[in-house]
Specification:
Oligomer: single chain
Distance between the termini: 48 Å
Structural class: mainly alpha
Number of domains: 1
Largest sheet: 2 strands, antiparallel
Shape: globular
Number of helices: 3
Radius of gyration: 16 Å
Strand order of the largest sheet: 1-2
Order of helices and strands: HEEHH
Helix content: 40-55%
Length: 111
């Protein structure tokens, strides 16, 4: 079955490109600060070149758009660990980071 998609306007395309460029810049600042380029969950070496999948939003940006540029809402991980979290099976360190993010952003009113 083929699902016909609505064609995006030039304005929507440009907005998406600007948003991606802004997100990439945000990630690059985080990447530059890392002492070790390793997955925070499993410890695998990520390489020197950053990839978008390496930046997991602990509290999903689809639900918490206001947190998408919060450094403390980002978890650095390999593709495998990111996929596990996305499928509902985060590792222990990922779970701990999610709970910390919830405490900081959802339950702490002192922000």
């Amino acid at each position: 079955m083929y699902i016909k998609r609505k064609k995006k306007s030039q304005e929507e395309i440009e907005k998406n490109e600007e948003e991606f460029a802004r997100m990439w810049f945000f990630w690059s600042l985080i990447w530059a600060e890392l002492k070790e380029k390793k997955c925070w969950e499993c410890g695998v070496y990520l390489g020197e070149e950053m990839k978008s999948y390496m930046f997991d939003h602990l509290l999903e940006k689809s639900k918490y758009d206001e947190l998408k540029y919060e450094k403390d809402n980002i978890f650095i991980c390999c593709g495998h660990c990111h996929t596990k979290k996305g499928n509902g099976f985060p590792g222990e360190k990922h779970k701990e980071a999610i709970e910390k993010a919830k405490q900081k952003f959802l339950y702490d009113n002192s922000r």
